[in-house]
Amino acid sequence: MDEVRLKDELMARLSNELDRPALQVIDGALSAVLRNYEVAKRETGLSTNVLCFPELDIFLGKMRFENYSASTVNQYQRFLTDLLVYVGKTVQDITGEDVVECLNYYEQVRQISTSTKDHKRRIASSFFTFLHERGYIQKNPMATVDPIKYVAEIREALTPREMEKMRIACGANIRDNAVLELFLATGCRVSEVVGMKVEDIDLAAGCVKVLGKGQKERIVFFSERALEYLEQYLGDRRDGAVIISSRAPHQGLKKNALENIIKRIARTAGIGKRVFPHLLRHTFATRALNKGMPLPTLCDLMGHASVETTRIYAKNGNAKMKYEYDMYAAG
Fold first, then answer.
1. Which of 34, 139, 152, 238 has the maximal Cβ count within 10 Å?
2. Domains of the chain
């Protein structure tokens, strides 16, 4: 087991310095070489520095090696650091009761919802399960921590009228129109729009290559409306980020800036419910299924790893019946 730990620690140290292909080569080489050696860790006594968490560094290094996005790694790092600081014990000594106490405190101080609290529980579970499976801890404290029950929020896709209100609210602002239509036409995640490059757009074919979760590339398509606003917005630009700031040096907009654009458009449109980029993605998927798009096709367009993930949009509820009424029965 010390051989495994040695490799884990080396990969954790290198994960911030090297790209994934280089890490894969090193990982394979270490596995081959270490099979021929017996490695023993030199014991120097327990560290009294509670802010040093080598097991967390190893876990995060493994996440980077497995191509988790930087935002996901940062999210895990923030909560797990908070957890370890709050408990104030070595990972070997942490119990399920410690984790529950931390989650309760986190809920009280941060005023988080029960769904967010359960998400934090799952982050802790992935961390301690990793440590247990790799032999860093003898017992998994999460074995005694039950899932937190909550009522899942039902996201209602934008209605055709709400979409039209948002389009009207954009007015003559070409960038606002381009941003809104990009989300509605492609169903992209906000991170994918952030990373979208002009050089990856094929205006003639009406599509663009995006980089999704797990660094997986896929092609998404533009509607005629989105294509028209994109052409106007891009002008003679041939490279760089698609959506850029209106002020010099005109850098690519980040996640928060795109979210704020969508919120502002919705507020101007007078839409009462909360509107955010993922709701536009939800709207894209719901409308596509309502119009009869096969699940496997939608799964590919949205960059889902499994059709089961896409299936959540296929519920035949009131929204779909209203949509079909508008299509077939409304005058």
1. 34
2. 2-144 (1.10.150.130), 160-328 (1.10.443.10)
> What residues are annotated to the active site?
189, 213, 278, 281, 304, 313
Tokens (6 digits) for 94: 């942490």
Look-up: residue for tokens 């003559």?
Answer: 172
Let me know: does 157 contact 282? Beta carbons within 8 Å.
yes
Angle at which helices 70-87 and 114-133 pack, to 10 degrees?
Answer: 90
- Answering whether pTM is above 0.70, one says no
Q: Looking up tokens 């394979």, which residue turns up?
A: 28
Q: Which long-range contacts (CB under 8 A, 24 or more apart) does 128-133 make?
A: 128/91, 128/94, 128/99, 130/59, 130/62, 131/55, 131/59, 131/91
Q: Is the pLDDT of residue 52 over 80?
A: no
The reported pLDDT for the residue numbered 249 is 87
Ramachandran angles phi, psi of 156, nearest 5°: -95, 120
Q: Which helix (H) or strand (E) holds 279?
A: helix 277-290
Task: Give the contacts of 261 (CB within 8 A, at least 6 positions apart).
Answer: 175, 176, 179, 253
